[in-house]
Specification:
By secondary structure, the protein is of the alpha/beta class. About 45% of the residues lie in helices and about 15% in strands. It contains 13 helices and ten strands. The longest helix has 28 residues. It is globular, with a radius of gyration of 19 Å. The termini are far apart.
Length: about 325
């Protein structure tokens, strides 16, 4: 039986590169592309099948920033599949990123210059907005939409005789200082992206605590600093080209500059081959690239603990319950 791999955000960037690399590893897979834009998804499907005709590639439409879209997608997936072996929770946004010029120049003349460029810590702010579901867009897209996806697909994921894996695209930019339990959606801050990635780390740890005994395991990955549509939103492409020589030089001092989506998928592909039971749930797996362009995987213990993760998980369950009650009331009124 073919293993089934579901990938959100599969039509571009890391998601697209991951599709290509997984089929290079095993063209007997069934890839299910979970995408918002169906025309892009169809083009990707056609391209993948042209290069890997032995594979199966299907599409499900889902916008993780819209709960009705998530509910509809999970309904379709439960009709199509009996189980999911891997779910790559990769879709994410960083809306309207603004570069903090003062922080940039302060960092350039400090001992933390390499760390600053590796993590973008303190460099980026974003302008968030409210979705039609009444949630902060970054939080819903990067965290809560995926959480609901998992909740709805539990029956396809929990099979103790054969484990399933959740693999989240997190970030080195996931900072505890940008996350607050009093404001888990980061509605009052200016770094919702960093907050959402820290929330992902917390959620992954809690999911392991609750579902490992049912055969479901969760890991988090950072693909490194890459040139994608997301990073091109920070600076124009021509600026990136101007600073590229500096970035290439920094690669000899910091392994986070993977630069391409292909390189960035190194840790995601590595996890595909691991026995999930052997992985440390408190560790983040990092894609890394040497100054000479060789890719490898490293790891780093996350700045969190299981009790904190559990507290966040309970907050998400409470929010889910409130939203389901609201949806039920709306349905009854209609």
């Amino acid at each position: 039986m073919r293993k089934v791999v579901l990938i959100t955000g599969a039509s571009s960037g890391v998601g697209l590169a991951l599709c290509r690399r997984l089929l290079e590893e095993d063209d007997a897979l069934h890839l299910c592309l979970a995408c918002r834009n169906m025309s892009k998804a169809e083009a990707v499907r056609t391209s993948l099948l042209a290069s890997h005709p032995a594979a199966e590639v299907s599409i499900v439409q889902v916008d993780v920033s819209s709960l009705p879209s998530v509910f509809q997608a999970t309904k379709e997936l439960k009709q199509r599949f009996q189980r999911l072996d891997y779910v790559y929770l990769n879709a994410g946004i960083m809306p309207n990123p603004q570069l903090n010029i003062k922080a940039l120049f302060r960092g350039l003349f400090s001992r933390k210059v390499i760390h600053m460029f590796s993590t973008a810590e303190g460099l980026l702010t974003q302008n968030d907005k409210i979705t039609p579901d009444g949630l902060q867009e970054v939080f819903e897209t990067n965290v809560f939409g995926h959480f609901i996806l998992i909740q709805e697909l539990e029956s396809l994921l929990c099979h103790s005789e054969s484990p399933s894996q959740l693999i989240w695209t997190s970030s080195r930019n996931a900072k505890k200082s940008n996350f607050s339990f009093e404001d888990v959606q980061h509605s009052k801050g200016q770094e919702p992206y960093s907050s959402s990635k820290y929330a992902i780390d917390l959620l992954s740890v809690a999911l392991n605590r609750h579902f490992n005994h049912q055969g479901l395991y969760s890991s988090v990955v950072c693909p490194g600093t890459m040139l994608t549509n997301l990073t091109y939103g920070i600076l124009p492409p021509f600026v990136w080209m101007l600073i590229m020589p500096i970035i290439w030089l920094l690669r000899f001092f910091a392994n986070a500059f993977t630069l391409t989506p292909h390189n960035g998928t190194e840790a995601l592909v590595w996890l595909f081959h691991q026995k999930p039971e052997s992985l440390n749930p408190l560790v983040k797996y990092l894609s890394a690239t040497t100054g000479f362009g060789s890719n490898y995987v490293t790891s780093k213990k996350m700045d969190l603990d299981e009790d904190t993760a559990e507290k966040f998980y309970q907050k998400l369950l409470k929010l889910e319950k409130e939203i389901r009650v609201t949806i039920q009331k709306t349905n009854n009124q209609n």
